[in-house]
Amino acid sequence: MKKDIKYFISLLPLLFIALVMNAQDDAVTFEMNLSKTKLGINERLRVEFTMNKDGDDFSPPDFNGFRVLMGPSQAISSSWVNGVRSYSKTYSYTLAPTARGKFTIKQASIVIDGQVYKSLAKTVEITAAVEKPNELNVDDYADDNLHLVAEVSKTNPYMNEAISVVYKLYVSPSIRVSNYRPLDNPKYNNFWSQDIPVQRLNAENGTFKGKNYRYVVLKRIVLYPQKSGKLDIEPLSLDVTVEVPTNKRDFFGGRVYTQINKTVSAGNRTINVKPLPSAGKPANFGGAVGDFDFKVTTSKTSLNASESLQAIVEVSGQGNLKLFQLPAPELPSSLEVYDPEHNEDVRTTLAGMQGKISDSYTIVPSFKGKYPVPSISFSYFNPKTVSYQTINSEEILINVIQGPTNSSNPINNNTVNSKQSVVTSGNQFNFIKLNPDLTTKNFSHFFGSKAFYLWLLLPLLLIPLSIVFRKKRDAIASDVEGNRIKRANKLARKYLSEAKKTLGKKDAFYIALEKALHNYLKAKLKIETSEFSKDKITSLLNEKEVDTDTVEGFIGLLKNCEMARYSPFSDVQMQEDYDRASKVISNLDKQL
């Protein structure tokens, strides 16, 4: 027993040390670090406030005696080592002294887990100018003066309600941007998307976080969420070539700039999509969301049998015009109705789709009579009033003036019984010739002539020609691969015809090319536009056992279509992409 007590007492120091170490690991730290405590008036001071847990309401000191050149900029570091999480968050500033002397950088404060933490104040001595001042940190300087922002018009829309995303690149007047290119375009999964091309990149004046900037709009897109819940919009990332000023001067006293490449990202955005309310939803609601007008018209209401008229069902206004089907009229069975022709006159702006869509039915009456076209109802959800609305069309009466009477109608008995006897007179068969003259005339010279024997031998001469023709036809029919290639090339020309017309016009060409590629896949794989992501396409093509080169070629063309919105493309590149698209579609058609 005494041995056990002694053993336990010997372990107490170790347990105490372990408890202290664990307490230190869980302790919250918030401290200020200076790049140096003594510097010349022509040098720069970097101040960092670092914490080991995330906090809120960061309050920096007033930096008396200094001018803030950059900041605050944030940096977050998180890692797991042997199951232990390490976290660090830093607010950094770059300061320029305004006078010589000793200055105290006072306390900063932050709230972590509901408790206020303060850093310790530190003193900095500012001396006369030095010969070799420390250089500006060009990376930090670029980070503080270059921002890519995704401005979302609405973060809590209803399902199928339009929202817009505008990507702006903010550039401080103190730096220069010479070039940029997209690294990764966002995927709009679970959204119906429509790009609004940016025709010209115009720099405008603006403010960002209270500071003056110049900005340029790089990309605009309209999104219609296709399901409710929290949907993520992936960030747009750019590789930007930036010219940053240094402390060096040229021969004429001008500031010397250095060129660096920076990667900027617009950040991930989350959209909270509200479901359409179930209360008050009409039974005929078909998914229309917006503010609409509805009408049914006919090209004429009076006509004769076998003539045609057009019945037009039309919806106009603002909303998801391309994402719902129009109601169909219920017409009498005695009217012959052809499949409707769908027409769209829709333009897309940052406010969403605007215009009208219509279905035009060709109607041909066969019998005389009056045919009513019953009223049709159209229902939609209006996000502005947060309510469902229903519009009923007026009933239309089609009057067929002349034509046969429908045999299915009851027949008047007087008409049936009013028969008249037929009276014969004279020889009623006198129009029939009883003694026809069938003798041949003027053909005696043909028999025995050269023409006679030529016509007689002609069938024998056609036999070898027909054998040759049949063999040729069988050879063509047996060439399965050749026929497949011909069909594939013909299909490629069909889908790429619009793109070929716009060769030389970069924006129009790549819009038409992207549309051709998408339409081809829609026809072949039976997938909706909202499913068009490069990952989804790759997965579907791999499931169809399409070879890797063809899949990569198709995805590469889609990426070129996206990059063309931001980067210059030559006529040669456009021609190469057109040829590649023709080859890729041909290869896909042979394999799918």
Automatic annotation (TrEMBL):
Protein name: Protein BatD
InterPro entries listed in its UniProt record: BatD
Annotated TM spans: 452-469
Extent of the signal sequence: 1-23
Source taxon at top rank: Bacteria
This protein's UniProt keywords: Membrane, Signal, Transmembrane, Transmembrane helix
